[in-house]
Amino acid sequence: MTAILDVADLRVERGRTTILHDVSWRIARGQHWVILGANGSGKTSLLKTLTGYLVPTAGRIEVLGHRFGQSDWRELRLHVGVVMNVFSAAIPLAEVALDTVISGKYAQLDLWHRVTSADRAAALRQLRRAGIAHLAQRPWVHLSQGERQRVLIARALMARPRLLILDEPCAGLDPVARAHFLAFVQQLSTLRGAPSLVLVTHHVEEITPAFSHLLLLRRGTVLAAGERARLLTSANLSAVFEAPCHLRRSAAGLRLEVRPV
Ligand SMILES: Nc1ncnc2c1ncn2[C@@H]1O[C@H](COP(=O)(O)OP(=O)(O)OP(=O)(O)O)[C@@H](O)[C@H]1O
C-alpha cells in the first residue's frame, strides 16, 4: 500500500555542516508518530525539508507516492498540514478565528478566491471540532496560546491533509492547558478520516496513547524508528538525550527523570 510519507537516505548539508545524515523514515496509513530529539538534533530541519522549505542535498521524499522534485510541491503541501509556531507571526492581529480557519483552504494555493458560505460552514465545523466555536469572532491578538494552537489545527484541517505535523504545539502552555490540548489531539486521532499525526517534542509527557510510533533523532541521525512499545525505554531515551535518564510510567502518564551525573 502507498505510504503516507516515505523518506529515504535524506541528507541536508549547508556549507560544511551536515544537518541531517541519511534519514530514512516511512509512515503507513493509520500510524501516528512522535519525533523526539534533544535541542539541535534536527527536528525542525527535517520538518522544513519535508514541507519544501529546506532543499535536501541528497535522498528521496515521497508524499502519497508523489516524489519531491517531480511533482508540484505546492500541491503536495495541501496534503501535509503543518502547525509551527513560526507561522503564527504571519497572522494579522485583527483577524478573527473564523477567517484564520477559512484561509487554510486557500492559503497554500496562491489563487484568487471568493469565500463561499460552504467555506464558512466548514470552518465553523472545524472550530466546533476543536472545541472553540465560541471563539469564532475573537481576533487573533486576544486568543490565548492554547486557543491559538487549536485555531491553527482547525486551519490546517480545512485543506483535508493526509498528514498533520504539529511542531512543539505544547510550548508555552500551562500544565492544565497542555493536558486539555493533548486530550484534544488524542480525540483528533480517533476521528474517522483523521490525518496521520506527527508530533514533534522534547517531552515524553506529551506521548499520549494516540501515538503508535516513534522517530528518535540524535545529532541529525535516526537513532531508531518504529513501534512505541519497543522503543520507549529508558535506554533509548538516555541515548536520545545523551544523559542517564529513567522513564517513569504511572496512571498519570509518562515522566522522564534525568539522573544526576
Ligand atoms: N542553515 C543552517 N546552516 C548551518 N547549520 C544549521 C542550519 N540550520 C540548522 N542548522 C544546525 O542544524 C542543527 C539542527 O537544528 P534544528 O533547528 O533542526 O534542531 P531542532 O532539533 O529542531 O532543535 P530545537 O529542539 O532546539 O528546536 C543545529 O545544530 C543547527 O545549528
UniProtKB/TrEMBL annotation:
Protein's UniProt keywords contain Transferase: no
Pfam families, per database record: ABC_tran
GO molecular-function terms, A-Z: ATP binding; ATP hydrolysis activity
Keyword line: ATP-binding, Nucleotide-binding, Translocase, Transport
Domain ABC transporter: 5-244
Presence of the UniProt keyword Nucleotide-binding in the record: yes
Function: Part of the ABC transporter complex HmuTUV involved in hemin import. Responsible for energy coupling to the transport system.
Annotated PANTHER family: HEMIN IMPORT ATP-BINDING PROTEIN HMUV
Protein name, entry field: ATP-binding cassette domain-containing protein
Organism: Horticoccus luteus
